[in-house]
Every structure is written in structure tokens, then in C-alpha cells.
Design goal:
mainly alpha; two-stranded antiparallel ribbon; 9 helices
Length: about 260
């Protein structure tokens, strides 16, 4: 069984499970879709982040993972249509955040354009393409950070909870980069065995392991901080038809 056949089988299984979940409990399925979509999009944004870092700073060992990281970045435009499942309920619900939808759509358009351009430059051996990637890596890194934290704060913070955190955007940014590095290492190992990529030096994997440990520690620290440094204890209540349901806490402005 080829990798594409396996991926297609897993995708089909996911669609079947999602359909069953929607039939049994639409509200929980909507929240599950929201988390899964954010996580997968975060891996794509993390791939772009590491790709830009490897060209904006002299991080030579990351050059061996350039093609896997560029491939992960393409997940952003591929997953962009899934945003409709989150945006449509807010557009049709009175009082819901239309501004949140506009910001999310703008972030996805900009992020998708960057991902496609970065992949085109990263997969070519043309020196001119490499220079363009190096030239745009600094500004691109800042743009990716803004786009991803915007999506994370608007659509990741507040799924079934009644508090906000100033560290939420940074936490999603850290865990997306962590996931991207882990997936890129696995893709590189698999590509070496199939002959699609040349064998990387062992030092590259040692450096990737140390960076993975650093991101795990950063992510754990940010999660720990969120438990003690909430931004606001107020309930962000929305109509029941929205993917963000009221928690029913006493004093909630929705009366729950």
C-alpha cells in the first residue's frame, strides 16, 4: 500500500467518523471539528515558521528539512475551505462575531499566499529562488505570527470555557511549531527510506531532537501559566446555535 493510498484511506475514515458524530451530537462534533482544524492548520503555520527561521537566521541544519517544512506549509491553503464550517454558523447567527470571520478569512488568505510562494521557492534549486526566500523570510515570519495568533485567539480561545488568557496565542504558536517539527522529522525519515530525499546527517536529527525538547518545555510552561494567569473571568456567551456555547456559570451575561 502506497503512502497516498494510506492517506486517502485515513481521510475517508475521518469523514465517516465526522458524519457519525454530526448525526449523534452536532454541537460536540462542531467543537471537535474546531479543535482539529486549528491543530492541523497550526502544523502548517508551524512549518512556515520553521522554514522562514531557517532562511532568516543562520540555522544550517534546518536546510535538510526545507522540503518537508515547505510541504507542511501547503496544509494552510488545503485546509482553508474547512474554515467555512466554522464561519457559516457565525454569519447566520444574529449577534455572532462577523468581525471574527473577516479576520479569520483575511489571515487564511495571506497565510495561504505565503505558503504557496514559499513552497515554490523552497522546492527549486535556482539561486534566485533561494535569495528571494531569504529576503522574504524576515517579513514573512512576522506576517505568519500575526495570522496564526489571530486565528488562535479568535477561534481557539473560548471553546466551551469561560475565561481568556493573554498567553493563548503564544501557546498555539508554540504547539503548532512543535507539531510541525515533529512531523517534518518523521517525513524526512520516511522519505529517506523510499529514496525521495537524500540521507541526512545524524547531527541534523540530534539538533532537531534538542529543539523539540525546547519547544515541549516552552509549550508546557505556557499551558501551566494559563492556569494561573487568566486574562478575564467573564463568560463570553453566544447564542446556542454557535459553536461557542455558554457554560452556564453563575452571573453569566446570557442568563444561563
Amino acid at each position: 500500500m502506497t503512502a497516498r493510498t494510506t492517506a486517502a484511506a485515513v481521510a475517508l475514515l475521518g469523514v465517516v467518523v465526522l458524519a457519525v458524530g454530526i448525526a449523534l451530537d452536532p454541537a460536540r462534533s462542531a467543537r471537535a471539528w474546531q479543535w482539529c482544524w486549528l491543530w492541523a492548520t497550526g502544523v502548517g503555520m508551524g512549518g512556515l515558521t520553521l522554514l522562514f527561521v531557517s532562511h532568516a537566521a543562520p540555522v544550517g541544519w534546518l536546510a535538510g528539512l526545507r522540503r518537508p517544512l515547505a510541504g507542511l506549509g501547503v496544509a494552510v491553503p488545503l485546509l482553508a475551505p474547512g474554515f467555512l464550517a466554522l464561519a457559516v454558523p457565525d454569519l447566520w447567527t444574529p449577534g455572532a462575531g462577523v468581525g471574527r470571520v473577516v479576520r479569520g478569512a483575511a489571515a487564511l488568505v495571506v497565510g495561504s499566499a505565503l505558503a504557496l510562494a514559499a513552497r515554490a521557492w523552497a522546492t527549486r534549486d535556482d539561486p534566485g529562488a533561494v535569495r528571494r526566500l531569504q529576503r522574504w523570510s524576515g517579513p514573512g515570519l512576522a506576517v505568519v505570527a500575526v495570522c496564526w495568533t489571530t486565528l488562535a485567539v479568535d477561534w481557539g480561545m473560548g471553546v466551551g470555557v469561560a475565561w481568556t488568557s493573554h498567553a493563548e496565542g503564544v501557546r498555539w504558536f508554540a504547539q503548532g511549531t512543535l507539531g510541525a517539527l515533529a512531523v517534518a522529522v518523521l517525513v524526512a525519515l520516511g522519505s529517506e527510506r523510499t529514496g525521495r530525499l537524500p540521507r541526512l546527517p545524524v547531527d541534523v536529527y540530534h539538533a532537531a531532537g534538542r529543539l523539540l525538547l525546547g519547544f515541549v518545555m516552552l509549550w508546557a510552561y505556557l499551558v501551566f501559566c494559563e492556569l494561573f494567569v487568566p486574562g478575564s473571568p467573564t463568560c463570553r456567551a453566544t447564542p446556542p446555535t454557535s459553536t461557542r456555547a455558554c457554560t452556564g456559570r453563575a452571573g453569566c451575561p446570557c442568563g444561563g
